[in-house]
Amino acid sequence: MIFSILEHILTHISFSVVSIVLTIYFLTFLVNLDEIIGFFDSSDKGIIITFFCITGLLFTRWIYSGHFPLSNLYESLIFLSWAFSIIHIISYFNKKQKNHLNAITAPSAIFIQGFATSGLLNKMPQSAILVPALQSQWLMMHVSMMILGYGALLCGSLLSIALLVITFRKVGPTFWNKNIKTKNLLNEFFNFNILYYINERNSILLQQNINFSFSRNYYRYQLIEQLDYWSFRIISLGFIFLTVGILSGAVWANETWGSYWNWDPKETWAFITWTIFAIYLHIKTNRNVRGINSAIVASIGFLLIWICYFGVNLLGIGLHSYGSFTLN
Amino acid sequence: MILTLNPKILYFSKAHHLQSPLSRPYPYFYRPRNISLITNCNLQKPQDGNKSNRSITKTISLSDSAPPVTEETNGDVSGSADRSGGNSGGGGKEGLGFLKRIPRKVLSVLSNLPLAITEMFTISALMALGTVIEQGETLDFYVQKYPEDNPVLGFFTWRWITTLGLDHMYSAPIFLGMLVLLGASLMACTYTTQIPLVKVARRWSFMKSDESIKKQDFADSLPRASVRDLGVILMGDGYEVFMKGPSLYAFKGLAGRYAPIGVHIAMLLIMVGGTLSATGSFRGSVTVPQGLNFVMGDVLSPIGFLSFPTDTFNAEVHVNRFTMDYYDSGEVSQFHSDLSLRDLNGKEVLRKTISVNDPLRYGGITIYQTDWSFSALQVTKDGEGPFNLAMAPLKINGDKKLYGTFLPVGDTNAPNVKGISMLARDLQSIVVYDLEGKFAGIRRPNSKLPIEIDGMKIVIEDAIGSTGLELKTDPGVPIVYAGFGALMLTTCISYLSHSQVWALQNGTTLVVGGRTNRAKNDFPDDMNRLLDQVPELIKTSVD
């Protein structure tokens, strides 16, 4: 009884804190950022509170259910939300470089938690008993690695989607449509400066020819580069987790089902996801290919993760049917 | 390989000899622990001595055991990657020699990255299709599901499925062919692209001109600094540092360059292991009531043409006991089978209680606990018996099992014989119905509590379960596991960045340049942090 009360409290705290954080994010987008810089900082602290709440929640479930809290979809969603918050915290403490991860992780965390706690999945929050096949130490390694991998890959592919959105969005009507005359000139200027930037890699020179449109283009370019870089790094990290997760799952399957690979739908989709992100990493090795191509692959990967994580469970087919659920 | 130094570089090399008389004609190292490298340099020593005399041309031998010191003329390592890729035949002589006979054209086509990416996409698409189309059904099923008069998406009918073998996707020729092609691409890519790249990365290349250093991704010049201080600081940050005169070359995370090769080799290992599993395995499953035995060879049936039985197949398995654990809610928590292995002489060689997740392994054969069944019910009627009533599965809907049996009462030869029905979901409790089919009660086996039906005293003595075992041999597992281990390790190592730093002392000015292959955004920050530590020289060392 006391455990379920504790669990309720922790769920509500984490959910409301993340909602507040998200509100702060939207505020900082709407209002001038400099005025409420303190707000921005507080949102990071909010995520840290959320992180501790979810950790507490998971531990509570672990203690009273007696097994690692990753036996059904609700628990794995909470764990995914936890993975997002831990990615956020890592990027928060790694303050050497400003990156845009926190704009991805916080909303992701709240959406996933909101989905997990919403009435959509009733019956799910109850901790289920473990079927014989799940009673193994591999459960901890396999599922946690898979969920961490999903979390990191989702983050990375969301960054890539952001890159695509920024790349294909019209740069803003202010100077593109106003006078077409300067358009070509600006274009050339922009290209020239990018080349100049690449050659010299010296940001000081940019201050010499500061110019509104140029600096805007430059920041856009820089933002795209940053997004490209961070999505690459995070997808590489997620790829490691996914690899370890799939392989530990294969070893576990060899202990339980008698074969390390059964072409079970979930396995197959995890392998498809793995292949897509392997393609992403291969495209990345080629310097001549622009970031857009790899970003398109990463956004395909985003869809595939959801198919793998949710779609297969929704159908409730195959050997991985423990996490299956029915929508009410 | 003969490198001709152009006059410009010659000028620089002369200049540094003039500027720093203290610099030695052979490289020396900050790290004495790197013994192999030191011997290597001693070997190079006479050659370097010659070089100071005739520095226009010099011969650099490419050997695999000792990475030689080369002088990069243009500072573009990736440029020379293609060059050494062109004449890398000498390096592949061990083991990969047979690949030389394959026409170079085929190799270059296979190692083409877009082709490999297309292959991966195709494999993914086929696998996805395999999860959408129901696998392993009868022809009638597909004819009904994908009728010709109403094709899915306007063209997809059951004829596609039967022609392409999509009903057994993961063993269909089209799928296996793609996998073979991907394997060939993996090998070709490793051979033509990755190994040459590593060869270049292994070569320590000093840069002899400011321009080539400044061309790097990161470049900076320190007005008053010493190259030796930089060397010490780089070493403190985990770099391997090599110095020759005014030039410095340092690298870190070379494993990050090697690891992608390891990833490819691991993938190939897994493919080889998978092939061996598919061609050399035996499989079989058996349901054995408690107390009975079976010979393993009778159960196992070969999968492929490489499946050869061994002596262990003659061993006999005896099921001593089969039990089930239950949660408080009544659901099954675990199955246990106490198995004894007996050899041809009937001697027990191994005894183990297996459960799900804890199989028995003996002589290459693995016995898994996978299933269970209700074999028989032992009852006594009015003290007579015990009778063994065979339980029949009544309705199997998913995992929910139901077994039933019937104890005839009275004249068994009568046309409509009446009796007591007993139903059970598991070995825990038996539901008993009387002659009229009405509910009479629930009894647990072993409780010895009689149930009275029409004056008859029925005692359920015991419930005998049978264990569902799965047996297999798989010669591919060790190879596949080796591949798994290698893949995990090399994928992790691949995350590391291979960073290279070059520096050149030019008077009192130190020109530093560097680049990295993965953590590109962190690298300038790391370098700036390191360069901040380089002490400023108060008095110039070259005076």
TrEMBL record, chain A:
One of its GO terms (molecular function) is heme binding. The chain crosses the membrane at residues 12-33, 45-64, 76-94, 141-168, 230-253, 268-283, 295-319. It comes from Arabis alpina (Alpine rock-cress). May interact with Ccs1. It comes from the Eukaryota. This is Cytochrome c biogenesis protein CcsA. Required during biogenesis of c-type cytochromes (cytochrome c6 and cytochrome f) at the step of heme attachment. Residues 70-320 form the Cytochrome c assembly protein domain. The lineage of its organism: Eukaryota, Viridiplantae, Streptophyta, Embryophyta, Tracheophyta. Keywords: Chloroplast, Cytochrome c-type biogenesis, Membrane, Plastid, Thylakoid, Transmembrane, Transmembrane helix. GO terms for cellular component: chloroplast thylakoid membrane; plasma membrane. Belongs to the CcmF/CycK/Ccl1/NrfE/CcsA family. The keyword RNA-binding does not apply. It is a multi-pass membrane protein. GO terms for biological process: cytochrome complex assembly. Pfam families: Cytochrom_C_asm (PF01578). It is found in: Membrane; Plastid, Chloroplast thylakoid membrane. InterPro entries: Cyt_c_assembly (IPR002541), Cyt_c_biogenesis_CcsA (IPR017562), Cyt_c_biogenesis_CcsA/CcmC (IPR045062). PANTHER family: CYTOCHROME B_B6 PROTEIN-RELATED (PTHR30071:SF1), HEME EXPORTER PROTEIN C (PTHR30071).
TrEMBL record, chain B:
The chain crosses the membrane at residues 109-133, 174-198, 261-282. Residues 115-378, 416-527 form the ResB-like domain. Residues 43-92 are annotated as: Disordered. The keyword Transmembrane helix applies. It is found in: Membrane. It holds the Pfam family ResB. Coiled coil: none annotated. Keywords: Cytochrome c-type biogenesis, Membrane, Transmembrane, Transmembrane helix. Its main location: membrane. The keyword Transmembrane helix applies. Residues 43-64 have a biased composition (Polar residues). It is a multi-pass membrane protein. GO terms for cellular component: membrane. GO terms for biological process: cytochrome complex assembly. HAMAP family: CytC_Ccs1. This is ResB-like domain-containing protein. It comes from Arabis alpina.
